[in-house]
Amino acid sequence: MLLYTLRRISLLLITILVLTLVAYLLEHRLIHQEVPLWGGYVDYLQRLADGDLGLSQASGLPVMSLIALYFPATLQLCLAAFLVSLLLGIPLGTLAALNQGRLLDMGIMSAGLVGYSVPVFWLALLAVSFFSLDLGWLPSSGQLNLLYDVPPLTGAPLLDILLFPAPWQHAALLDALRHMVLPTLVLAIVPTAEVIRHVRSSLIVVMKQNYVKAAASRGMSRPAIVWRHGLKNALPPIIPLLGLQFGSVLTSAMVTEVIFDWPGIGRWLVSSIAVQDYAAIQGGTLVVASFVILASVTTELLTTLFYPVRRKELYAR
């Protein structure tokens, strides 16, 4: 286990090092630096180690401070969408697996296929048009009503409200949650479809195992079998796939934030591209890509830690 962990961490560091090399080569080509290539790359790594990503050409502020301001809002949105996808996808995938080949299974899988196929930006536009403009149930843009003056203590709106004591704290919290509903649901549709598919296929395989049949022969109820033997063994193998889905949620947030005017790192990167702010583009892309890689490696390590079959495979090598 220790050797495997060291290998994964080494791969993580090598991948991030390659990302920094690509980012530096782009900077070197666009800015036409006269310093030697490898000497400049070493200086670039030293600046990254000190947390120096340069200055934004648009605002004149350090890129790292801007990332610290915008990234928590994106992370809050992505975590909420990922949680919703798990809360919806696991029960629906379980129902589909337990009713394999029946009408309920076909209905769930068909709905998941439609949700997976429809572009995120089109879903966002439909949600704004129907729930905000037509029905007026939910706000269509922003993080919080302008009436609530909440300082950006952490960058995450909900956490900022909780950390800032005010007489209207409860009302501001409810308003922030209302602003999160539409972008969260739009972001959650695609990963929910993926979770349904993975849970269904994994649970179908598990429910055919001999230990499940033995539990049924002992008189254990079907819900107990599904809970104690089915999901317990079906979920760990798909944890790495869920890590990849978190990366896709993070990239989809770029489009969603623009449509819902959510002040996160996605909208900031898009505006930086529009004004050709190369330092912001480079720093933001590097941080987002590094976070996606870190999430993927973390899920693989968690799978190895909590899934005995995976550990057995490693020990057998």
Task: Describe the model.
It is found in: Cell inner membrane; Cell membrane. Residues 71-303 form the ABC transmembrane type-1 domain. With 317 residues, this protein is mainly α. It has 2 domains: 1-52; 58-315, MetI-like fold. Helix content is 77%, strand content 0%. It has 13 helices and no strands. The protein has helices spanning 2-31, 37-49, 63-98, 103-117, 120-134, 157-163, 169-206, 210-217, 222-234, 239-259, 265-274, 278-306, 308-315. The protein is globular and about 75 Å long. The protein starts with a helix and ends with a helix. The mean pLDDT is 82.
Output the number of helix runs: 13
Give the SSE order as H and E letters. Answer: HHHHHHHHHHHHH
CA gyration radius, whole angstroms: 23 Å
Q: CATH topology of the largest domain, which one?
A: MetI-like fold
| Global structural class | mainly alpha
Question: What's the overall average pLDDT, rounded?
Answer: 82
**Count of distinct strands:** 0
CATH class of the largest domain: Mainly Alpha
* Helical fraction: over 70%
Q: Tell me the fraction of residues in β-strands, as a range.
A: under 5%
Oligomer: single chain
**Cα end-to-end separation:** 12 Å
